[in-house]
Amino acid sequence: RTSIIAAANPVGGHYNKAKTVSENLKMGSALLSRFDLVFILLDVPNEDHDHLLSEHVMAMRNGKQTGCSSATVTREHSQNSNISVLEVLSDKPLAERLKLIPGENYDPIPHQLLKKYVGYARQYVYPKLSPEAAQILQKFYLELRQQSQRADSTPITTRQLESLIRLTEARSRLELREKATKEDAEDVVEIMKYSMLGTYSDEFGKLDFERSQHGSGMSKRSQGKKFISALHRVAERTYNNIFEL
């Protein structure tokens, strides 16, 4: 067994949200379904992200590193600036906890140290699910199963449940713990929701759970929206909103 991280560009260089992931990548559904997580990376304007990216590009051009001054990520507004953000207990969602604030100090872990850390964790740490973590994963899986009962929707099988378990165990292994906690399961559920949010969003930015994630074609609802949009374009071009069958 091994972990695989793959990247792919959409056909034609542009991701069409009216199509499924499989259609955009021209990748077989059997192969695509083997990936536990699928993230759609779109170039959407974002002030904070654009600021960080521009600083990084400018620093790279000048041969400098950005914001590296300590061994941990620190918050300027925290009571103790030497405390790692990973050590601070918080009720905030995972996305908020991982978000970098422009101007804060951080220093990436050296490559060799990270490689040794991951190697040690994989060789010596084999976490098991706690009852609380198992309950959270089972509840989320059953909710997905109930959602998939609709016609023309992506089938949810035990493969998704196995993915949730693997990711939760990996989340616990990352911190060298022998027991996967409730917090590990909650983080994994949030990551899975984020992944599914990107794959199920249609071209109008709305969630459409009836579209097939790995198969071909759009759901009937998406096809109807596309047909109505086409009628609006024709009506605007011809100045006539009356159509004959």
From TrEMBL:
GO molecular-function terms, A-Z: ATP binding; single-stranded DNA binding; single-stranded DNA helicase activity
GO biological process: double-strand break repair via homologous recombination
One GO cellular component, as annotated: nucleus
Main location, first listed in the record: nucleus
Stretches assigned to the MCM C-terminal AAA(+) ATPase domain: 1-57
Cellular compartments annotated: Nucleus
Keyword field: ATP-binding, DNA-binding, Nucleotide-binding, Nucleus
Cross-referenced PROSITE patterns: MCM_2
Annotated SMART domains: MCM
Family designation: Belongs to the MCM family.
Protein name: MCM C-terminal AAA(+) ATPase domain-containing protein
Organism, scientific name: Micrurus spixii (Amazon coral snake)
